[in-house]
Specification:
about 280 residues, mainly beta, Jelly Rolls, six-stranded antiparallel sheet, five-stranded antiparallel sheet, 3 helices, 17 strands, about 35% strand
């Protein structure tokens, strides 16, 4: 027994082996938890992460644990010399089901030709931020934008738009407000006649008392089937923004400066074949 430490003991007639009992205890705990312990190889693969409760379903493809290689998303993938079937074909498309959707924000194309031709709306700067300054609507004091609706969009959710802006003048009344009017229309780029029946959405924002250069974000929502033609992927979506009179006359002093326009689509498709 030289050089060994005896682990086996008898306690009141019970044959007790701490090492063996410890292993059994760990197995029992894992069984009670229902799915092993984090770090176990049985958990750390692409399938069990989706099956076992409490396990992560986020995969960092390209990480040390999941190194990227050609064929990651083929229908037949070889991992450690084992052929695995059932992967989604990324070469075509990944479909996101149920609530498994992705949100994508795009910045539409702005019609700068009209702005250059008429010198309106005025372009102003604050530090290195620049934007279009809008008074209450007068001829040419408006912004025109358009965007191609991405095919990745789920074709059933409403489209979110926000205009980021700041005020060029401080406000001193609790009920000071401004109001924006958005016109939108869509068309099939491959067929039909260009429509002339835009939908109008108006949003009023109460600024209250605030300093010069105070920032605001104004949200709009486009009803995907609320126009003359239900919006579809690859449609051309045209937008026109104007500042209009507030309802109760409590108009802000100065102008609003639009420095960002974002359009957000809820998408249910990913992959090389979608735009």
């Amino acid at each position: 027994m030289k050089g060994r430490i005896p682990l086996k003991k008898n306690f009141r007639g019970i044959d007790f082996n701490p090492m063996r009992s410890g292993v059994l205890l760990i197995i029992l705990i894992n069984l009670l938890l229902g799915c092993g312990a984090p770090g176990d190889p049985i958990l750390d693969n692409m399938y069990t992460r989706n099956i076992y409760p409490g396990a992560s379903s986020t995969y960092s493809i390209g990480s040390e644990d999941l190194p990227y290689s050609e064929g990651w998303f083929d229908n037949l993938y070889v991992l450690d010399d084992v052929e695995i079937e059932g992967y989604t074909t990324f070469g075509n498309q990944i479909i996101l089901e149920g609530d498994g959707k992705a949100w994508l924000e795009f910045r539409p194309d702005t019609d700068f030709e009209s702005v250059r031709a008429h010198g309106a709306p005025t372009w102003v700067l604050r530090g290195i931020f620049g934007g279009f300054s809008l008074p209450i609507f007068a001829p040419n004091e408006e912004l025109h934008c358009d965007i191609c609706v991405p095919s990745r969009w789920d074709a059933e959710s409403d489209i979110e738009i926000h205009f980021d802006l700041w005020l060029d003048t401080a406000q001193d009344a609790a009920n000071d407000s401004f109001r924006l009017g958005l016109n939108w229309e869509n068309r099939d780029p491959n067929a039909g006649i260009v429509p002339n029946a835009p939908v109008t959405i108006e949003v009023e924002i109460v600024t209250g008392v605030c300093p010069q250069y105070q920032c605001f974000q104004v949200p709009f929502q486009i009803d995907h089937d609320g126009g003359t033609r239900t919006i579809e992927g690859d449609d051309n979506l045209a937008l026109r923004l104007r500042r209009i009179d507030v309802v109760d006359g409590n108009e802000i002093e100065g102008e609003v400066v639009i420095d960002h326009i974002g359009i957000i689509f809820r998408c249910d498709k990913l992959g090389a074949s979608t735009l």
